[in-house]
Amino acid sequence: MKRSLVLGLLMFTAAACGSTASTESESEDSQRTSAEVATTSLSEEGGDVSPTETSTFEIDVWADNWFALHVNGEVVGEDSVPITTERSFNQETFTFEASYPLTIAIEAKDFKENDSGLEYIGEANQQMGDGGIIAQIIDKGTGEAIAVTDDTWSALVIHRAPLNPDCERAADPVSTCESEILDTPSGWTEVGYDDSGWDTATQWTEAEVSPKDGYDQISWDPSAELIWGSDLEVDNTILLRLSVAGATDGSDQEAEALEADDEPDDLVEEGTGGEQMAITSPAVVDGALLAAFACERKDDGVKASIPLAWSGVSTDAGSLAITMHHFPNPDDTTQANSYLTLWDIDPSVGEIAHGEAGEGGWFQGSNKDGTAISYTSPCSPDPDRTHEYTITLYTLSETPPSLPQQNSIAIDWAVLVESLESVTIIDSATLTFSA
Predict the structure, then answer these.
(1) In 142-261, which ranges are continuous DSSP H helix?
(2) Weakly modelled stretches of the chain, pLDDT under 50
(3) How far is residue 322's CA from residue 426's CA, in Å, rounded to a whole number?
(4) Residue 418 belongs to what H/E stretch?
(5) Last-in-domain residue among 195, 226, 244
(6) Residues whose CB falls within 8 Å of the CB of residue 207, separated by 6 or more in sequence, listed in order
(7) Residue 58 class from Cβ within 10 Å (0-12 exposed, 13-18 middle, 19+ buried)?
(8) Number of domains in the chain
(9) pLDDT averaged over the chain?
(10) pLDDT number for residue 246
(11) What are the pLDDT digits (tens) for 245-254?
(12) Measured by CB atoms within 10 angstroms of the end CB, which terminus of the chain is less buried, N or C?
């Protein structure tokens, strides 16, 4: 499906923080110079959509060992220390200007001497290396972190070696060590690229990555995580993508809808069913998501949705809607990651079985990254660094007329919540859990 976007002028300036050595990128996109400026546009039947106002952003990145950063298909910056440097750990800060929505793409590499995946070959400390990267993007206009690295990023490992770790001490690792090498997908940094077939990034702890030079020079947002592929040592080159919808217009109305139970006004009426509405899930026990329902694998680009059940729906209900979201920055409730959006649910429906969110007589919106009609499964590998997720059930007077009568990748948490302004919210119930 083509999406209608006209992306604003993308410009950047690099603010070097760390080593300032010049480097030549290994990717085709990185051959562009800092003097290049580009305007990217996509159109579809129905006309153009005007771009949002250009904003200024600052991004902090620390990588073991090298990275190149793209925003909306354009190179914003790359590690100032060449990947050919055997031991390099440093942080970089870049400032750039762009218009929402943003597509952030990062190519990250751990140093390897050759396709064996090893480093220090022929020396006493010949070994497998390990990677890791952390980043945060700050909207300079608001001072808020609008994106951080965590397990919500899409990830594709394109170089894995050695697949047989017992070759680590081999005298001739080039002929002994096995590898898996994929071609870099064409257009993977672009806005319209479909990464629904990718895996999600894996979060790693500081103890596992052991971040070195430069890491402590950045004041990291509490929600920013060290990420990589599923194997710190075997995964050598990884591509990462994240879509950021942008600053939310009408945030007052969204907050109003979310807090409707606490601050009822003329938009919210009490239900007449006599029973307090509630939403539950057998996948949530004692406020935590069971491991069996976390990190769901993709099947044809779609993840199995969380099972849900509810009761106490008002007899006045004309329609139901469900959202699931997570605030990357708990102090900023205007920016949310959207994991599930469903609308036009018949009030007679009282449950959705595991994996059945896309199978009923209702409509479904996009996954977290805006790349597929799907649910996004929470996935936090480190049990000590969990996140909070909220599922909200809305009882409505009718389905908001602005929502399409079909599945739509354009509908996420922010869009659905804003649409509620046009109807009466009779009641709402939430289920909050950690994962």
Answers:
(1) 173-176, 206-209, 251-258
(2) 1-51, 248-273
(3) 14
(4) helix 413-419
(5) 244
(6) none
(7) middle
(8) 2
(9) 79
(10) 67
(11) 865 433 333 3
(12) N
